[in-house]
Amino acid sequence: MTWSEMQPLLEQACWDTLYMVGWSTLIAVAGGLPLGILLVLTDRGGLLQNLAANKVIGQVVNIARSLPFIILMVALMGFTRSITGTTIGVEAAIVPLAVGAIPFFARLVETAVREVDHGLVEAVQAMGGNTWTVVRKVLVPESLPSLISSVTTTIVALIGYSAMAGTVGAGGLGDIAIRYGYQRFETQLMWITVAILAVVISVIQFAGDYAARSLHRRGAHSGPAPKLRLLKAAS
Length: 235
Description:
Elements: H1 3-41, H2 51-66, H3 69-75, H4 77-84, H5 90-114, H6 118-126, H7 131-142, H8 144-165, H9 173-182, H10 187-222, H11 225-234
């Protein structure tokens, strides 16, 4: 296969992969962020302590995370069809990708939020701040560098998931690698897709790490004054 034949296939596959991963990431962040924060708030000593609810949520998250992605795709076929009208193609792949990424991201959020200085939480509470104020002005802003790293990790994982989704007709670079590289023995095309995936992941990882480091340095160099202003605003 010549480059002129491979180029349009690779371009479409790249756009399909970015489309799947982009929408899946947005849904995973929208669902996983509140879920991760809720795991912290309902835990022992949390602002909304409810150990029964925390245990149920935690078990659901653990079970969802334990399922291999291929099995998850098969298990969600009925759900996927009810939403998209089909079980193949780019749009259909977004459903299991997002469902699989939400609990994954939620656990990363939980870890990031637990690292926040509890003294700031107590200070906001002492000044009359409610739970929503604590979440909005302390937990999320203070854990933002770690949350950026968590989003980066989730995107990288979703790229791998999207490649696996390609094996069952989801499209994207995984589909190209299977249909042409494996089934038609176009090994050159397969290795090109591998190289593209490696480059995309490296760029995303670099950008995410850079953003997280920049936010961390900004917070470290700002000193206590911004936090004092934050507490004053919370009151």
